[in-house]
Write a structure and sequence with these properties.
- This protein has 11 helices and 8 strands.
- It is an alpha/beta fold.
- It has one domain (3-281): Alpha/Beta hydrolase fold, catalytic domain (Rossmann fold, 3-Layer(aba) Sandwich), CATH 3.40.50.
- It has an 8-stranded mixed sheet, sandwiched between helices.
- Helix 4 (138-145) packs antiparallel against helix 5 and helix 6 (161-169) packs antiparallel against helix 7.
- The two termini are 22 Å apart.
Length: 289
C-alpha cells in the first residue's frame, strides 16, 4: 500500500509517497518537470513487494509547499539541499536513485556529495552530458544568455496546457494510451498564482547544470555505481543522444532504449518496473536492521 506523508524541512512541508518495507533496499524516486511524485503512482506499487520506495515532491511542485520566488531561492542547488535534508529527516542510510529530467541535476548533486550512500542509479531521460542538450534547449540557452521578455516568451508559453500535454504525447507510439489525467494534474499545479515565476526561475537556473557535467561524469568513473538506463528514445527534450554517453563512463551498466517519449513510465511502466526488479535484485540484498 502506498501511503502519503509530509516532512517539515526548513519551514516547508515536503510531501512524499512511500511504500514497501524498510527492511528492503530503498529506491529514492526523483521526479521531473512539470510533474511531481504523481509520475511514480504506478511504479511504486509495482515494486513495493521487494523494495522500499520513497518519492518526494520538490518545493513548488505537487503537494509540497510553494513559497513565492521572493521567499525561497528556486535553484537546483536549493532543491538538492532540501531533498538532502529530507533524506536525513526520514533516515535513509542507503538508496538507489531514480533520476528523470529535473531529478538528474537534483540527484547528481546529492550523489557526488554522498557517493557512499548510493547503491545504484536508474536513469530515465535524465541528462548528464552535453550531447543531450539538443535543438529543444536552444530557446532556454537564449534565455540564459539574455533573460529578456522576448526570450522569456517561448518559455512562458511552454507552461500552457498545450505545452504540458505535448510533453506527454510527443514521441509516444500510442498517444491514446496516455491518460489526460497526467497533463491535467500537472497543469493544475502550474496554473497556481506565482508558479509561473517559480518555473521561470528554474528555467534560468538550469544554466548551472551543464558546468557540473564533468564533475558528475568523474563521479561515474570513480565510483562506478551500477546503472540501469531506461530511456524513451523518441524524447525531443532529452533525446537518446544524451543516453549513449553513459556507456562511456560506466562499466556496470544495463542499457535500454524504449520506443516512447519523455514520460516513458506512461507507456512502458511495466517494462521499466521489470527492468528495475531484475537489475537491482541481482545486485542488492535486504538491508539488515
Amino acid at each position: 500500500m502506498t501511503t502519503f506523508h509530509t516532512s517539515a524541512i526548513d519551514g516547508l512541508d515536503i510531501f512524499y509517497r512511500e511504500a514497501g518495507s524498510r527492511d528492503n533496499p530503498t529506491i529514492l524516486l526523483l521526479h521531473g518537470f512539470p510533474t511531481s511524485s504523481h509520475m511514480f503512482r504506478n511504479l511504486i506499487p509495482a515494486l513495493a513487494d521487494k523494495f522500499h520506495l520513497v518519492a518526494p515532491d520538490y518545493p513548488g511542485f505537487g503537494n509540497s509547499s510553494m513559497p513565492g520566488v521572493d521567499e525561497f531561492d528556486y535553484t537546483f542547488d536549493q532543491l538538492a539541499e532540501i531533498v538532502e535534508k529530507f533524506i536525513t529527516a526520514i533516515d535513509l542510510k542507503q538508496y538507489s536513485l531514480y533520476l528523470m529530467d529535473y531529478g538528474a541535476p537534483v540527484g547528481y548533486r546529492i550523489a557526488t556529495k554522498h557517493p557512499e550512500r548510493v547503491q545504484g542509479l536508474i536513469v530515465q531521460n535524465g541528462n548528464a552530458y552535453e550531447e543531450g542538450l539538443g535543438e529543444f534547449t536552444e530557446p532556454t540557452k537564449a534565455y540564459w544568455n539574455d533573460p529578456s521578455a522576448k526570450n522569456a516568451k517561448p518559455l512562458r508559453d511552454f507552461l500552457s496546457l498545450e505545452g504540458t500535454k505535448w510533453q506527454y504525447i510527443n514521441g509516444a507510439r500510442n498517444p491514446e494510451a496516455i491518460s489526460p489525467d497526467t497533463w491535467n494534474m500537472d497543469q493544475l499545479f502550474l496554473d497556481r498564482p506565482g508558479n509561473a515565476e517559480i518555473q521561470m526561475a528554474l528555467f534560468y537556473d538550469y544554466r548551472t547544470n551543464p558546468p557540473l557535467y564533468p564533475q558528475w561524469q568523474e563521479y561515474f568513473r570513480q565510483y562506478q555505481p551500477p546503472t540501469l538506463v531506461v530511456w524513451g528514445k523518441n524524447d525531443a527534450i532529452f533525446p537518446a543522444d544524451g543516453a549513449y554517453p553513459y556507456q562511456r563512463d560506466l562499466k556496470e551498466i544495463e542499457f535500454h532504449l524504449l520506443d516512447t517519449g519523455h514520460f516513458a513510465l506512461e507507456e512502458d511502466g511495466d517494462a521499466i518496473a521489470n527492468y528495475i526488479r531484475q537489475f537491482l535484485t541481482s545486485r542488492l540484498h535486504p538491508i539488515s536492521a
